[in-house]
Amino acid sequence: MTKRSFQSHLPHRSSQFFVVPLLLHTSALPVFFLFTSTMSDATPSIHQHSSSTRIQSNTQQHNHLPLKHQRTNSGSYTVVTLYDVQKPEFNEISEDTILIGMILNIHKSELNQRIPIFNTSFKGSTKTPTPFVQEKYDRYISIADLSNPDGTCFCLLLQTNKQTRELFSHIQDKVAIGDIIQVIEPKATNRSLSTITNDLPIFTTTSPLEFYKHTIQLPTYPYIIPDNPITKFFLLHGVKINVVRATMENSICGGRMCDRAALPTTTKTCGCMFESTPCKLVLQMDLYCTCDDCAETIFVENYRSWKTTELFIENLTRSTVKDFYSQRDRQRRMREVIKHTVQHINNHGGWQIAGWFRVGSLQDAAEKGVKPATTTTSITAQSVTPHIVSLTPESNAVSLYLKTNKYSLPTLDLTHRV
To answer: Domains of the chain: which residue ranges?
Structure first.
């Protein structure tokens, strides 16, 4: 059977240069490349091609980003978007397709917690939600669609621990939120974690997740709060940050998958499948972020990240405990080192930050144990809390500085608390 082409709906972007990091899971620093992005003004038709992945641009309003993935022993993949997967005709031509995404959140169920699932159906080009059902689950993974410049997100819902282990079987000892992965041959379910059109649709896959190891182009995904309730991804370049009240704290776990981002006071569990490092500490700080693409300063209170901790601190071992960093003189010295490093990176290209926020989502209410009144209820948030999942230097020219200017505790007997 001849495979059909179908229309995609992605914002048009003009030709421009980007300095773009390839986020590698084996290093705390990104690798950077210079690209030229050239888009034509036409509607993109995606075609399956036997020798290489090809995305033909031909659009009025929307466009694909030119992401490509070549497999040496299995031909090629065609990169698709969230919108493509949701089309009724997609399943017929879904073989050898991938969704490229950044992991935003890995949420684990607590004590047989149930989650509201909204069934959706297509009526022409729109979806109409039907009444929700409460379902048990093991984990759900929120993922940003990196082929979509409008910052839309989708999720993978896993009912059992076996499904979770199968999904992460290829990368479970290395993956963390903020990493770029590929979902192989995604399939729509006409189910969602939200009643809002194109907000957190639930996809499935029969293949394990894999790291996306090829060079890709990541433009700016602006931090703009929409008027309607929705979950949005943002990615900003050349950001200047200010770190305030950095302290070393006990982390929720010793794992890498959750990046130790959660506060122990807000949750009892994290998304990790096992503990991967012997040290159970993490840096906590308040972050102030500014850049040309920010309408206002982005403030993140009590930001925690194991990846960020490794950028600033060295010699963290099983014997290292919070008390070693709480002594006032040592805390001052640690903060001084962090501030000097931050200022150096601010002056040499700044930072790339990526994250997400949710505006008035029913899922927020559900996580707090509040049952949504109806499937059409829309909650308008008075304030929005940004969640940063990746904070990396924009330029790899600072890598030597980072390696030689980390804070390390003075020599002491680590078997005794201070």
So the answer is: 230-404
